[in-house]
Amino acid sequence: MGKFSRRQVMRTGLAAGAFLTATRCASAPKGTPNNPAPGPEVNANQSKDVTLRLIGTGVSQINDIRDKAQEDLGFKFDMRALSTEENNQIAITQPGQYDIFDGEYFSLPLVIPSGNLQPIDINRITNYDKIVSYFRTGEFKGMPVEKSQGTSPYKVQYLTGPDSKEFSATPTEYATLIPFQYNADTLGYRPDLVGREIKSWGELFNEGFKGKTAILDIPQIGIMDAAMVAEALGLMTFADKGNMTKAEIDQIIDILKEQKSKGQFRAFWKTFDESVNLMSSGEVVLQSMWSPAVTAVQAKGIECIYAPLKEGYRGWGGGLGLSKNLEGIKLDAAYDYMNWMLDGWVGAFLGRQGYYSAAPETAKKFMSEAEWAFWYEGKPATEDMVDPFGKTLAKAGAVRDGGSFEERFGNIVCWNSTMEENTYLVQKWNEFIAS
Amino acid sequence: MSETWKTLKPYALITPQTLIFLMFLVFPILMIGVVSFWEFNGYSMTPAFTLDNYRGILTGVTFKTYLNTFKFLGMVWVATLLIGYPVAYFLAFHVPKLEWQILLFLLCTIPFWTSNIIRMISWVPLLGREGLVNQMLMGTGLVQQPLEFLLYSDFAVVLGMVHLYIIFMIAPIFNSLMRIERSLVTAAEDLGASGVQVFKEVILPLSAPGIAIGSIFIVTLIMGEFVTVRLMGGGQSASVGKLIQTQIGSLQYPLAAANAMVLLAVTMLIIVSILRVLDIRKEL
To answer: Which chain B residue has its CA at the smallest distance from A429's CA?
Structure first.
């Protein structure tokens, strides 16, 4: 013993420190419902040599879907689960890295001008007419969603021509994305800690919840929540929430700053896990949430309500787009995949997690009557509702928050938005965070 | 032949490192510098020469964010020095056995054994509204209401960074303390110096280079920090690193690049001033 020289010890110590720093920095959070660690690749079938590379957010890149697709279609898939921001970055800056882009509609005003996606020929999509009418025609039974603001899917669903980079206001044969999953987002709260029913977005700024609320720290989404709150409280009005003017951005950011300095917020969150953690620990009792996060809190045995609010919901939607690099057999395969996706199995799979399918009609075939009644019709569960991973999400007798598909989807009043003043928004948002 | 080889050998030896250094450090920084002058229209950037990005960041927000980052830096630096120095001192002078020194030293690296996400989750039961600390304080009747500032505040950010980075202060100070010739201390004592005098006149000056190196570590780590700031600050605290991250997230690369260049310059400036005050060359 005692053979080490001091110098050596120091050197090793420092090296160990440096190594630990390096590994620490390199390890991103992995393996969460929103961002699952990709499992080992399995080559279920080698009959065709095609491998389609998909990029998308964690909510859509699910191994079970990949395995089933490989089994049914006979070619291979390589899925990459990314954060919303990374997904857009790759879509725009590295077109060679993917064949199918699974992204949110609100990213299209940034992705489409890059020319990295090729229009989808809707004549090749067999079940295109089964897709929920709002996406195709902008109509939905005369409900509020028809007048919704922001980057609504219908506004960016069509392109003017086969080589176009311009959105068409009316339906054409060239689609940008085929909707994959979507939902109506709202505030989530802990009924045990709030003690009453939450019915309005305005409650987020209620002094009674001082220091116990949270919002999203993603400018394009957080600003929409803030706008819903400000409108609900009559603090300000917008000509179009989804496309604010500089003056409107200034005003809403001032309102946010004021709330922040009053200590209204406990935290801002950026990832799914953070929102789950904030809610389940009770640090936050009322916050803007994504639906799988509410499910994750409930799965821990903690009561959490996804509040149906009188002002309506903030919608989000994602879909599949084709890379401009696809051609020949690979392009055919990509169309096959999209048709398979609309065939119903995927819709049912997503439905059991609380998402809505692009073509509910086809998904119905793959769901039990009880499941359909609970998830889509808003009826009390006649049996325990189990998600595809075996977790019980709702006990028999429970009713889905917000009711039926029509009631929820129909009441979307704004969507996640990329505005014309996006750069200015980000700048002001940073100002808000720094205030 | 062997003569040429002899002259060439040192160059051959440093070539791989130089290449890696150029390719993965100098070149990327140059590229960032180039991009910072490019134009950008919201979704794509085009090569150009514009100063708009730099103009765009010379605003009140950036200034405020820098002030905030300096505030964190100052607090973390003071805290790591005040805590780190005694720890290093104890390790160097009061732990006689080398094995124990190594063991205790390794203990200081424990914060690095967990991932960000684990740390983020585990601070909540400790510092949260219903966390251990608050329960203890309320149990002993010291406070009536739970202290909210313990988590998701500037305090929490500083705490998180001190917890994480203090090893970078301890290690160099420990190193320089270990190199102090013990006979110098004995000599000082023989000449009648008191304990305080020995520390002030002998130990502190001789360990100053260690403090300088530790400070450089702290400066470089804190100036670019965004993960701890976001997680411990609950997203409510701002730092330059976080500002850049938000811009990258929104695809505003040229702006982010310009910000990164300014940050680099500011950090270099601080380091140069530290090196001006203290000569660390004898330490290396």
So the answer is: B246
